[in-house]
Amino acid sequence: MSTFKEISPFEIAQNPFSLIGKDWALVTAKNGDGCNTMTASWGGVGIMWNKPVTFAFIRPQRFTFGLLENEEYFSMSFYPEEYRKALTFCGTKSGRDVDKVKECGFTPNYSEKAPYFEEAKLVLICRKLYAQELGKDSIIDESVVLPQYNGDDYHKMYISEIVKVLSK
């Protein structure tokens, strides 16, 4: 039985800079009858087109990228510190090679439009609104290019409406 309660995106009490940049998130999308997840430490939340939104950045080489491209919905979920090792694992292993959900012992929940895990403390169910590839030509401060992009492996940005927030 799930211990989540639904709240408004405007009721999220945690600092989004800490949630995304320090605590990290798992971005999770359907994969057939299952799902795949990856760790994300880049992104944000805000208001766009009069909607509460997330900004997620995924490299095209990531297995989860293809899943996001094929799905309308995905989840971003945040975890207590005791899951740091699992989040590190999900950020260093590919779903092409390993079942990260099984290896981390996560309990998938498919009751929403996107899968998420019962171990999370906060879940954002997101519906894609806009996607655009980042590119060197659009970067104004070139000092961000070299440390992040050794090749032409620029992220794709997804702006997604937060359609539901589940909190413990």
What does this protein structure show overall?
The chain is α+β, with helices and mostly antiparallel strands and 168 residues long. The chain contains five helices and ten strands, in the order βαββββαβααβββαβ. It has helices at 16-23, 63-70, 84-92, 100-104, 145-148; strands spanning 5-7, 25-31, 34-40, 43-48, 51-58, 73-78, 108-109, 116-117, 122-133, 156-167. The strands form two sheets. Strands 1, 2, 3, 4, 5, 6, 9 and 10 form an eight-stranded antiparallel β-sheet that branches. A two-stranded antiparallel ribbon has the order 7-8. A hairpin with a 6-residue loop joins strand 7 (108-109) and strand 8 (116-117). The mean pLDDT is 92.
Jot down its keywords.
single chain, 168 residues, alpha+beta, eight-stranded antiparallel beta sheet, two-stranded antiparallel sheet, 5 helices, 20% helix, 39% strand, globular
Helices and strands in order, then pairings?
Elements: E1 5-7, H1 16-23, E2 25-31, E3 34-40, E4 43-48, E5 51-58, H2 63-70, E6 73-78, H3 84-92, H4 100-104, E7 108-109, E8 116-117, E9 122-133, H5 145-148, E10 156-167
N→C terminal distance: 13 Å
Mean pLDDT: 92
Number of strands: 10
Helix content: 10-25%
Number of helical runs? Answer: 5
Which segments are poorly predicted (pLDDT under 50) over 5 or more consecutive residues? none
Structural class: alpha+beta
Element order, helices and strands? Answer: EHEEEEHEHHEEEHE
Beta strand %: 35-45%
Sheet with the most strands?
8 strands, antiparallel
Radius of gyration: 15 Å
* Shape estimate: globular
